[in-house]
């Protein structure tokens, strides 16, 4: 644990220095990826490249997503970057520790997977709605990332994790494509955008994930499935009701 804390503090200091002198997100992520790869390879027992990359994927992805939000509009000062990045690095430290464990906590796995699903959907909505990114590229990246995340999440829940991940990724792409025609954003604080799409997708992920967990534990029934699906339906209805709809003539 001490070695992990020292490593992440060093990574934090280096990323702040890179932001101050360079300010290039791609270079920062490249440095973080190389550092994580070296660290994970040095502390885990397995030396198989695919297993090491699998352990590297989620911590680096969530760090990259959070840093992207922070630098998205290129209006972040050094003090704000340093303060928020310290929180991100603390989360990154916890994720690295989680990934190098031989037995992963199921609750942590569920929260981590839902968090990544939310962040990807939110960034996709911001990219399309705020930054005018090409929809086709956003959908392709969203499909790939959702497939990888759910494949890892569903591995211990079902023997057909790839099929489940493929269907989930296609469903997410369709939802983003349809709802991208009327994007709605909430802004609870300055420079923090939460998209309606991301809330709907996260609620749906919670429902389907819960059903899959009950199916694995052989406790799934119609009432349990209806209870989980009603959560997604309720979130969707509330968000639609609270949305201010306008008509342009």
Q: How would you sum up this structure, described in words?
A:
By secondary structure, the chain is mainly alpha-helical. The protein has nine helices and two strands. The protein has helices spanning 2-21, 25-43, 49-71, 78-99, 106-129, 135-154, 161-179, 196-216, 222-242, and strands at residues 185-186, 194-195. A two-stranded antiparallel sheet has the order 1-2. Helix 1 runs antiparallel to helix 4 (78-99), helix 2 runs antiparallel to helix 3 and helix 3 crosses helix 5 (106-129). The protein is globular. The mean pLDDT is 82.
Briefly summarize what is shown.
With 249 residues, the protein is mainly α. The chain has helices at 2-21, 25-43, 49-71, 78-99, 106-129, 135-154, 161-179, 196-216, 222-242; strands at residues 185-186, 194-195. It contains nine helices and two strands, in the order H-H-H-H-H-H-H-E-E-H-H.
Secondary-structure class: mainly alpha
Question: Describe the biggest sheet?
Answer: 2 strands, antiparallel
Quaternary structure of the protein = single chain
Secondary-structure element sequence?
A: HHHHHHHEEHH
Strand order of the largest sheet: 1-2
- Give the averaged pLDDT, no decimals: 82
Kindly report how far apart the N and C termini lie.
62 Å
The number of helical elements comes to 9
Query: How many strand units?
Result: 2
Low-confidence stretches: none
What percent of the residues sit in helical stretches (DSSP H or I)? over 70%
Strand content: under 5%
Give the C-alpha Rg.
Answer: 19 Å
Q: Tell me, what's the shape?
A: globular
